[in-house]
Amino acid sequence: MSSQKASATRKPLAAAPEAKAPSRRRGRERVATLLAAGAVVFADKGFDAATMTEIAARAGASIGSLYQFFPTKAALADALLEQHMNVVHAHLDAIAAQAATQPLPELARALCNALVATRSANPGFVALLDSGNIDPAVIATIRKAMRQQVAAILQRRAPHLPAAELAAAAAAVLQMMKSAAAMQADVTLPGREAALAELAQMLHAYLQVRLGG
Amino acid sequence: MSSQKASATRKPLAAAPEAKAPSRRRGRERVATLLAAGAVVFADKGFDAATMTEIAARAGASIGSLYQFFPTKAALADALLEQHMNVVHAHLDAIAAQAATQPLPELARALCNALVATRSANPGFVALLDSGNIDPAVIATIRKAMRQQVAAILQRRAPHLPAAELAAAAAAVLQMMKSAAAMQADVTLPGREAALAELAQMLHAYLQVRLGG
Amino acid sequence: MSSQKASATRKPLAAAPEAKAPSRRRGRERVATLLAAGAVVFADKGFDAATMTEIAARAGASIGSLYQFFPTKAALADALLEQHMNVVHAHLDAIAAQAATQPLPELARALCNALVATRSANPGFVALLDSGNIDPAVIATIRKAMRQQVAAILQRRAPHLPAAELAAAAAAVLQMMKSAAAMQADVTLPGREAALAELAQMLHAYLQVRLGG
Amino acid sequence: MSSQKASATRKPLAAAPEAKAPSRRRGRERVATLLAAGAVVFADKGFDAATMTEIAARAGASIGSLYQFFPTKAALADALLEQHMNVVHAHLDAIAAQAATQPLPELARALCNALVATRSANPGFVALLDSGNIDPAVIATIRKAMRQQVAAILQRRAPHLPAAELAAAAAAVLQMMKSAAAMQADVTLPGREAALAELAQMLHAYLQVRLGG
DNA sequence: TATGAATGAGGGTTCATTCAT
DNA sequence: CATGAATGAACCCTCATTCAT
User: Fold this and answer.
1) Which stretch, B6-15, C38-47, D11-20, has highest mean pLDDT?
2) Where in chain C are the domains?
3) pLDDT at B213
């Protein structure tokens, strides 16, 4: 199964109260504004400390308006999450497309950067995932999907790796990718760029061992 | 400077609201109970969702008693953090003691396990660090101390590595150690043990490259 | 400068936490009710002993409603203060208008009664001013404004009094006016009316000396 | 009845829980320290905001020790009040002793200064009286006693004044004395000294009218 | 549909007072 | 007596959510 397909067949994350799809253009714009505001505020303060009132205010909307589209704080977070996951998946799909032909060090770097990029696009993402306020089932789903995408990437380089080993490697690589994102987010780290390069190096060394030179 | 010394000169983390030290035996026991309860509740729900009331209740104490020793929710978290850091630092010191003589794969495994172990001893640890409710300066201090300890460990294997490279490597290794702990905490991950082994492998491959065979 | 003008250019008292202005009619009514309730409760118990819960209850509102418009107990007090000051200033303006032509004993009586009247309209006023919970800068501002108004009144009778003497006299007269109000509030004082008359007498004697017959 | 006698027969102010008189020297010292600490803290923060814990701490005593001598926050305040009243009464007695022979302007000044002096010796005094936390009966008693002392002073100058007029005049003069004290406490008042002189002038003018030149 | 007022449970924190040691 | 830990009612304030207009 190609990862494109995987991402194409992805289903809405939550079974919970869904935002009613806005029928008019005006509505769609509003939703976008609200999501953007939510992204910023969640990123700034984390899920718990973020308030629906502030999000609405930042979007230039009334609190009532916000609730019209997102019946729950968690629903807003879910929507945000889904949106971000789409970006992430697209990123990984792009990497997968090149995976077979790219030199290994470049692949390593690309993987390391995957989450770094999307994460700086929206720093609140992780805060949400780790806040403990998101339905664990949703989180599990997300993680599984990402692992599968990473596995698909690795498989391009090592088509005959047994499924179990592939899965384990994918989990490890994904974890490493998260590490890179976390490191990128740590502004207090002196020599951050060098350390990030080191992480890429680490990934490269591993891929060499695992996938064969 | 030996890492033992480093840990000997470690200073209290918190700047502002310290836990008032109990002077009676009763008080000291209380503080221990309260810390334990806090650890559990923070681990369960994260910093924000944890309530002082629940912590007190779980400790079998009244809310007033809790506040007698920890003037603030954050102060309690700080105390917990400090306590945990002591464990972590001791762990790392122990690793450092063996670092020079140990076979490399074992060192890799030991590093991977360092945070895994302390973290399962108290799963709330990370939640606190990442919650955004802890004084960023405290967090920076903690991270720096850990990086230095890891650097000291690496230095035993590669005494002549330039300081800058050493620092970058330490940051990368530390990040990896955290990855292992995170992975360990993810109960939804199928084949977790295999994946953890893969992480150790990754670290090993990296150390080989970095520190020389 | 006429005292009317002075009162026209008066600015809002509070520096920091303003009452959020209601935009709907319902809200405006609420605010009025809440202010009234606050006035009563502050008067009854003083600032510290008054509770927001009681104020809300007395207004027939929920606690949340109260906080919607007054983000802080102090903000409510400030609003109340400002409202009362407006009444006081209007009173003093009225006195100023007649000051030039009125017989001196009548002026003395009017001054004595100025605060008595407004104060019985809202007995909590002084409690607030003296509670030590109001921003001292606000208090200083209030006092200064009152002194200036009293000075303006005196100036109508003695246009050529040097500014410094005028200011000192105004401060003394204002203090006397407060005395009258305090006396009025003391229900345990036997012969209160006679004593109040005595105070007016005292003021009259003073004005005669100061302003000339 | 001489005012000395009046002050000699004064009874304890409160019927409420009394502090047990300490039998040993050590105890008496402690009580003195506690009272002093209470005076300072009440003065600083007012009755409500003052905490028993802080008072004990400032006295270098434990909270338990404080409660050994003053079973209640109000009891402490009462004790303080009584102590201060003794000073005030002594002051007034001294004034009474000279009242008959002194030139009128000097008497006026002495009266104005009476409360000013004692009040700056302990600025918390008024805060207590006006805080609404002291038993109103106690307050009434205090006021009555002071009025009687002032009346006694006035009587020395005008022995034949009818009792009712004397009482009214005493009430007015007392109020004026409080005004002077309040004015003295107002650090924001520019030209405070001049204003105080004005107050003395006012009192003088009144006494001339009332008591005859 | 958009707005903003209304609601109230719940959270962190304080402090007078009590009591065992 | 002294000490300091223990208690818990009460306080101020927040915020997700609902609802009338």
Assistant:
1) C38-47
2) 3-12+75-211, 20-70
3) 57
pLDDT of res. B160: 92
Mutate to test the interface with B, among A42, A112, A189, A208 (most CBs of B within 10 A): A189
User: pLDDT of B149-177, one tens digit each?
Assistant: 999 999 999 999 999 999 999 999 999 99
D163 close contact with C: CB closer than 8 A: no
CA–C1' gap, C67 and F21, in angstroms? 22
Could you say which architecture CATH assigns to the domain A3-17+77-211?
Answer: Orthogonal Bundle (1.10)
Q: Can you give the pLDDT at residue A129? A: 78
Distances (CA, A) of A54 to A28, A49, A64: 20, 10, 12
Identify which of C71, C187, C19, C42 has the alpha carbon closest to the alpha carbon of residue C129.
C42
Q: Do chains C and D touch (3 or more CB pairs under 8 A)?
A: yes
Residue (of B88, B148, B151, B84) closest to B122 by Cα position: B84
Distance separating alpha carbons of residues C23 and A114, to the nearest angstrom: 48
Nearest CB neighbour to B188, from listed A140, A197, A205: A140
A131 to chain B: which residues are within 8 Å by CB?
46, 48
Q: What's the CATH code, domain B74-211?
A: 1.10.357.10
The reported pTM is 0.86
For tokens 């003296």, name the residue.
C130
Q: Which residues on chain B are in Cβ contact (under 8 Å) with A190?
A: 167
Q: Annotate A32-59 with b (16+ C-beta within 10 A) or e (fewer).
A: eebbbbbbbbbbeebbbbbebebbbebb
CATH 1.10.10.60 fits A20-70, yes or no: yes
Three-state SS for D4-42 is HHHHHCCCCCCCCCCCCCCCCHHHHHHHHHHHHHHHHHH
